[in-house]
Design goal:
By secondary structure, the protein is mainly β. It folds into two domains: about 230 residues, Exo-inulinase, domain 1 (Jelly Rolls); about 30 residues, no CATH class. It is built from one helix and 19 strands. Strand 10 and strand 11 form a beta hairpin. The longest helix is centred in the C-terminal third of the chain and has 4 residues. The protein is elongated.
Length: about 325
C-alpha cells in the first residue's frame, strides 16, 4: 500500500513520508507502476509473496562489459521518485540468496546517483563472485557515486553480505552527515545540507532467479517495504526540514519578529526591549540619562553602522560549503 505524508510515525522523533509494499505478484514487471523505473530493460524486477510480505527481486543473472550509464547490466537499478527528504532516513529489508552484488540506490537523477553496494559473501573466499566496480575486494561494502559513466568509490570496508538472512539497510541524513548501514556496519560521508533522499530504490548485478543460460536457480536478491521518514527531533509534529526550531517543541511555529527563527528558540526575542536607546526620550536638550549635556561616543565600523562604545554588537556569518565526497568509516 502506498502512503504519502501521514501525520505522525509510530516512532517518536520521526514523521512518515513514504512507503511501498504493493509490488505486483501476477508476473508483470514492477517498472512502469506507481512511478517505478528501471535502468536495464533486459532484466525485469518482479514481485513475490512470502507469508504476509511482498518482495521485489531481480529476475535474471546478467553481466556486462559495458559501463554505467549506457543501459547495460551495470545499470540494473529499480528506482522510485518517492518524496524529497533532506533530514531523514531511507530503510529497506534485504534478503540475499546470491552472493554477487546488490545494494540500494538513493539521490537518483538522470546524471548522478549514489549506491550503497555490497559485493560477495561474508567469510566466503572460494566461490566465484562478480562486482560491478573494479578495485573492490572479494567481500566489500562501499559507498559509490555514479556520475554519467563513471563510478567512484567514496568509502569502503571489507564486509560481504549475510546470505539467506533478513538484513536491514538504511541511509540516514542529518545536517550534512550521511550514514549508510548494512546490518551492523556503517559508512559515512558528508553531503550538502540540501542533499535529498528522493529517487530511492534497489540495485542488483549478476543477481537473478534465472541464470544466463535460462535455467531457474532461485538465487537472487530480495527487497521489501522501502520506507522514507522525516526527522522530527523535538517530536512536535513538524519535520526538521520545515521546523523553525528543530530542538524546541513548537507545533504552532510562532515567529513574533518574522526572522525565520521560531519564538521558542530565538534568543533575540527572549531579551526584553527596555526602550532605552541611550538618550532621554523625554527631552530634546541632548542630555543623556547618565550625565548632563553628554552623549555616548559612537564608533564607526566602516559599513554605516554606529555602535555604542559601551557595548558594540558583533554579527557572525556562517556559510556552509559544498559537497565533500571523502567519507570516513565507522565499524559497527
Amino acid at each position: 500500500m502506498l502512503s504519502i505524508l501521514v501525520l505522525k510515525s509510530a516512532l517518536a522523533g520521526t514523521i512518515d513520508a513514504w512507503s511501498y509494499d504493493d509490488f505486483p505478484t501476477d508476473g508483470d514487471g514492477i517498472a512502469g507502476t506507481d512511478g517505478w523505473d528501471n535502468g536495464y530493460d533486459e532484466d525485469e524486477w518482479l514481485g513475490a509473496e512470502s507469508g504476509r510480505d511482498v518482495w521485489a527481486y531481480s529476475a535474471t543473472d546478467h553481466t556486462s562489459g559495458g559501463n554505467f550509464g549506457d543501459g547495460s547490466a551495470l545499470d540494473n537499478w529499480l528506482v522510485n521518485p518517492a518524496v524529497a527528504v533532506s533530514q531523514g532516513e531511507y530503510t529497506v529489508t534485504s534478503y540475499a540468496d546470491d552472493n554477487d552484488a546488490f545494494g540500494v540506490v538513493f539521490g537518483w537523477s538522470e546524471d548522478v546517483y549514489w549506491l550503497l553496494l555490497v559485493c560477495g559473501e561474508e567469510g566466503n573466499e572460494t566461490s566465484i563472485q562478480s562486482c560491478p566496480v573494479s578495485g573492490l575486494s572479494l567481500q566489500a561494502m562501499a559507498l559509490v557515486e555514479v556520475r554519467g559513466r563513471n563510478a567512484t568509490v567514496l568509502d569502503e570496508v571489507e564486509r560481504g553480505c549475510d546470505p539467506s538472512t533478513e538484513v536491514e539497510i538504511s541511509i540516514a541524513m542529518d545536517d550534512g552527515q550521511l550514514v549508510a548501514t548494512y546490518g551492523n556496519t556503517e559508512l559515512t560521508m558528508e553531503v550538502d545540507r540540501d542533499f535529498q533522499l528522493d529517487g530511492i530504490g534497489f540495485y542488483a548485478y549478476n543477481e537473478g532467479a534465472i541464470d544466463e543460460d535460462g535455467q531457474e536457480d532461485g538465487d537472487t536478491i530480495y527487497f521489501r517495504e522501502p520506507t522514507l521518514v522525516l526527522n522530527d527531533e523535538d517530536d512536535d509534529g513538524v519535520a526538521d526540514d520545515d521546523d523553525n526550531c528543530e530542538e524546541d517543541d513548537n507545533p504552532g511555529q510562532e515567529d513574533a519578529d518574522h526572522d525565520g527563527i521560531g519564538t521558542a528558540c530565538d534568543i533575540a526575542e527572549e531579551e526584553p526591549d527596555t526602550g532605552d536607546s541611550g538618550t532621554d526620550s523625554g527631552t530634546d536638550s541632548g542630555d543623556t540619562a547618565g550625565g548632563a549635556g553628554e552623549r555616548p561616543v559612537k564608533i564607526s565600523t566602516g559599513d554605516g553602522c554606529g555602535c555604542d562604545s559601551g557595548g558594540a554588537a558583533g554579527v557572525l556569518a556562517v556559510v556552509v560549503g559544498s559537497l565533500a565526497v571523502g567519507g570516513r568509516r565507522r565499524r559497527g
